[in-house]
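Bumping my old thread because nobody answered last time. Still need a sequence for this structure:
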């Protein structure tokens, strides 16, 4: 497992309880992962180092968690050593690495998405903002860990963000605003066969009631009791399969996890974004519900044999995850704060604590080391029970100045 965050801890948890998986190694992992896997001090974006480690350990499968190593070609480096790797090539990972590229692929594949202008001058930005009107949506073209998007009624703020992106990269994307609830749907694919997971919803804004800045994600739940019947089949047929087929047709097949960020708008389904990897924190709520062997599925995708794997099996319950973030996150997180209460939280019924940004200090104390620090996750018979359990766990954890949302899954739990 390559990576350091909550998504990687959630993946390691699911692999560790998979009877068909003998051993898990992490490069470099985190203190939560350390309980389940041997850690190796390797830089996740250093393809040669990751490939060398995988060869030395003689592993059957490398799983790349985050987007940065994928875009940097780490999966290519591993496959060059004839080692199976779950994660797309650098070329295919551009579906996440460049919003302009993703728009071009969607247009070619006939996939519904927000209208967008890719702008390279301030005049073009002004024209696009005024053509679409408020609320304004302005996106950094490249990778920004969910923080490069401004959605605002304030034209001056939108223009300021666009100007910043133009200065940094020479390009910025201005989009039509999409209304309606958002859904994250993940699919495992080997470049041909597409196997969807259960849909999830994440909470991108920092504050309750979807206020404040965009973050990497402050919480999530799955499945979606309110989702329209046939949603998953519809997204596979209209979004995931056509996108996978289009990338294949271009000679850059996408094998790995294709994440469709969707808006269910008043005018129908639209893609907000694609990601080339599991979502964080959605993975924390999707994988605890999976009854199939995760190792088998990932390995089949990595070796072009996904058609041999039947539909995935899921438990009937639900999962909710609440992120505790460091003070100052997302703009300027203050790190190094002492964490207490993780084991007490982990002893609550149905609760486990996923490490997202933690480290063990020289004196042995567990301290925060990332903007999102832990994801307190719980499973239950339904969303309401999972939610109540997750928040019971949150109550037991202390970190000075920590921020968390109090309304994760509230609405879904009430339905
Ligand atoms: P992205 O990085 O593209 O996923 O954008 C982050 C978040 O910004 C999304 O999850 C949405 O909540 C919001 N967002 C992005 N694009 C749009 C859009 N066209 N209309 C409304 N909200 C959007
Ligand atoms: N939860 C949003 C993401 O992983 O991009």
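Sorry it took so long. Here it is:
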């Amino acid at each position: 497992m390559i990576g350091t965050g909550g998504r990687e801890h959630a993946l390691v948890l699911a692999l560790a309880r998979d009877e068909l998986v003998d051993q898990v190694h992490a490069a470099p992992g985190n203190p939560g992962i350390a309980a389940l896997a041997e850690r190796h001090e390797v830089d996740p974006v250093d393809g040669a180092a990751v490939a060398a480690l995988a060869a030395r350990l003689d592993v059957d499968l490398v799983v790349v968690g985050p987007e940065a190593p994928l875009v940097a070609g780490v999966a290519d480096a591993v496959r060059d050593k004839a080692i199976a790797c779950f994660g797309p090539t650098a070329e295919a990972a551009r579906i996440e690495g460049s919003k302009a590229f993703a728009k071009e692929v969607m247009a070619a594949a006939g996939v519904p998405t927000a209208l967008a202008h890719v702008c390279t001058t301030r005049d073009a930005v002004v024209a696009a903002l005024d053509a679409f009107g408020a609320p304004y949506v302005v996106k950094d073209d490249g990778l920004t860990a969910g923080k490069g998007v401004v959605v605002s009624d304030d034209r001056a703020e939108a223009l300021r963000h666009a100007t910043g992106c133009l200065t940094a990269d020479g390009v910025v994307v201005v989009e039509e605003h999409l209304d309606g609830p958002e859904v994250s749907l993940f699919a495992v694919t080997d470049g041909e066969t597409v196997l969807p997971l259960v849909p999830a919803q994440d909470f991108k804004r920092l504050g309750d009631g979807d206020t404040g800045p965009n973050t990497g994600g402050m919480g999530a739940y799955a499945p979606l009791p309110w989702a329209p019947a046939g949603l998953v089949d519809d997204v596979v047929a209209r979004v995931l399969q056509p996108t996978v087929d289009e990338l294949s047709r271009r000679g850059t097949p996408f094998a790995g996890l294709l994440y469709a960020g969707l808006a269910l708008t008043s005018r129908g389904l639209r893609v907000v974004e694609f990601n080339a990897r599991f979502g964080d924190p959605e993975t924390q709520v999707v994988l605890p519900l999976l009854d199939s062997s995760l190792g088998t599925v990932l390995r089949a995708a990595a070796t072009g044999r996904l058609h041999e794997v039947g539909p995935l099996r899921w438990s009937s319950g639900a999962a909710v995850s609440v992120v505790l973030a460091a003070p100052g996150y997302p703009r300027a997180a203050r790190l190094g704060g002492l964490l207490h209460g993780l084991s007490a939280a982990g002893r609550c019924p149905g609760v486990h604590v996923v490490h997202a940004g933690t480290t063990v200090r020289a004196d042995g104390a567990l301290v925060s080391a990332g903007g999102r620090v832990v994801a307190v996750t719980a499973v239950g018979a339904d969303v309401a029970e999972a939610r109540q359990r997750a928040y019971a766990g949150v109550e037991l954890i202390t970190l000075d100045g920590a921020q968390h949302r109090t309304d994760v899954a509230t609405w879904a739990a009430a339905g």
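The CA atoms of residues 345 and 392 lie 8 Å apart. Let me know if any region looks off to you.
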